[in-house]
Write a structure and sequence with these properties.
Elements (H helix, E strand, L loop, with lengths): L8 E7 L3 E9 L5 E10 L3 E2 L2 E2 L2 H19 L5 E6 L5 E10 L7 H12 L7 E13 L2 E4 L9 E12 H12 L4 E7 H9 L2 H6 L1 E6 L4 E7 L2 E8 L3 H12 L3 H11 L12 E4 L11 E4 H26 L2 H4 L2 E5 L8 H9 L2 E4 L18 H24 L2 H15 L2
Parallel strand pairs: 1-6, 6-11, 12-17, 17-18
Antiparallel strand pairs: 1-2, 2-3, 4-5, 7-10, 8-9, 8-10, 12-13, 13-14, 15-16
Length: about 425
Amino acid sequence: MSPRGKNRIIAGLDIGSGKVTCFIAELDEFFVPRVIGYGQYSSSGMKRGMIVDMDRTETAIREAVNQAEDMAGVEISGVLVGLGGVHLRSHMTDGLVVLNNHEITDADIHKVIDVARARQLDGDRQVIHAQPTRYLLDNQSDIRDPRGMTGARLEADVHIISAASSAIRNVVRCVERCNLEVQDIVVQPYASALSVLVPDERELGVAMVDIGAGTSDIAIYADGALVFTAVIPVGGQHITADIARGLSTPLSQAERIKTLHGCAMASAISEDEEIEITHVGEEKDGDPVHILKSALAGIIQPRCEEMLEMVRDKIEQSGFESAIGRRVVITGGTSQLSGVKQLGEAVLDKTVRLARPTGVQGLTDLSGAPQFATAVGLLIYGGKQAAQTNRVRRKDFNPMQWVSNLGRVLKFGTN
């Protein structure tokens, strides 16, 4: 680890379908991350959140980590890994423990969550997160934090997020092949939500949509708790592929055209200017072909509408549509496409906010771009976990025992 502080350096590794991103941060005295290095490398080793080529994914991880380490001036030995893919599942369950009227402690909270985790989970799946959304203590409901209270029965509604065991094993194995320890796994929708949602949105209820390259992640918050996550198998790469097919142009050219001239809503185009394109197989110095910007939007808009309609359906199926009201936050690389906000409001019939990641120090215009929402969220998660670990250590600290132990050390040291 870095000489800057063994326990103060954390790293987040976002393994996406289009790129692998690594962010390295140093935690301050309040466990707030400050970005000191980052790197990214394009990858074709993932598809819909699943590894399809171990060697290519390993190469992308090594390159992204090396870039981040060079910028930060440190070497890392472990990472927090963002896990995505259509194999992720989300459901609500409950747990119950009998207390015998003693004061509720952290152990009781962990026990009721473990009871909920153990219920109705298939053998080929693994729980990634088990987060209580509310507690019931005897006849009192809607309790946020029951620690310190007393009662006879403690119940909890728990949000379970699980993943295919094979997908987890492959990701862990690929990271370990890069000589890195997987310190924790965080699902990508949760990580992105940590970095782009503000506290009021979580409290009032909101749906976050992170439009990635191969998939789009959905996270729904209600009453301050994460209550639903989902992944749909459509993202920015599908828009690029549509452009390449529709204009008969190489994928690299299609991605460039989308980034520079793309618009998700044809009616939002004010000046219908011409765009130069090159057909597949033509020489670079050949005569370019010209198309109108509105024709490009005519290719992009149907795919964006399909994607947003799938998001709308997932929100309706979640059972929490009324809880989010009219609030939707869109992030991810494709959120930068012109017209996404207007199209989102039309299809979803809700108010849309386009968001960039926040919540950490040291972000620049580049490192704070929407496509890095998951990587930044991993750092926020790591900071929260470090703060929680520190609180537990301080709570368990016994000064009298420490003095006694010090006395024994000094005594043996003089013999």
